[in-house]
């Protein structure tokens, strides 16, 4: 009997602790779903996430599949006539199944697009998070200690970094460290946290003059507590927007770098697909090879922007 009462008491305590949080989540989700573009962005991200997790389930073929030869293993070689028909436009079972056609080597475009999603998601999320983890805290500290040597030091670093051109910096980076996905992410993050820092600093300069911050100081709260407990929740909306923008920017930057030949060609990516069609001279002939990777890049970048601006409204303390 005593055990049952204790269990009931623990359950009641658990409900009291979590019910307000669940209710806040429900209200936030309700506000988020009011933004149709945000819901659309979330659906696009969900599709790309599923492609990243289980590409073999969604792709019509494996990466080794080659038109005219079917599924591996195979020992046959393409005939000269078959090679001359590549890249092949979309085919739906005659002479093979390739809904978005093939490239000049006979690999399915739809298969390559699906398998490339994991690379884009990894680069976008990793570079966006890394940029925010650097820019947001530095902007908070710089704004809170405005007009002090701490603020001056951070802002002078920002000024120097702004004078660092992105493309030459990345060329030097890959020349020293080699072309790899990790180095690409580092290069993008190093040059993308600056806008975060400057904007967050300006917002923090305004927030630190608010009455609740002055009250926290009078009550004896430490600077760390004031920054991360009282000011940071109010700049989270901006942080979400910049995180989404940085993720989208990283995806576009990686695609541009791949197009210029500065990407890891051992990985599969949409940018490398565009570089291949440019290098092999089929830009004006093989639309089925050109449009899908470009459209995939556009949709993923747009999805991050849609979610970011919707989250700005959801997390705004004034709402």
From TrEMBL:
Residues 117-308 form the ABC transmembrane type-1 domain. It holds the Pfam family BPD_transp_1. One of its GO terms (biological process) is transmembrane transport. It is a multi-pass membrane protein. It is found in: Cell membrane. Keywords: Cell membrane, Membrane, Transmembrane, Transmembrane helix, Transport. One of its GO terms (cellular component) is plasma membrane. Gene3D superfamilies: MetI-like. The chain crosses the membrane at residues 37-58, 96-115, 122-146, 166-194, 251-274, 286-307. The keyword Magnesium does not apply. Belongs to the binding-protein-dependent transport system permease family. PANTHER family: D,D-DIPEPTIDE TRANSPORT SYSTEM PERMEASE PROTEIN DDPC-RELATED (PTHR43386:SF1), OLIGOPEPTIDE TRANSPORT SYSTEM PERMEASE PROTEIN APPC (PTHR43386). This is ABC transporter permease.
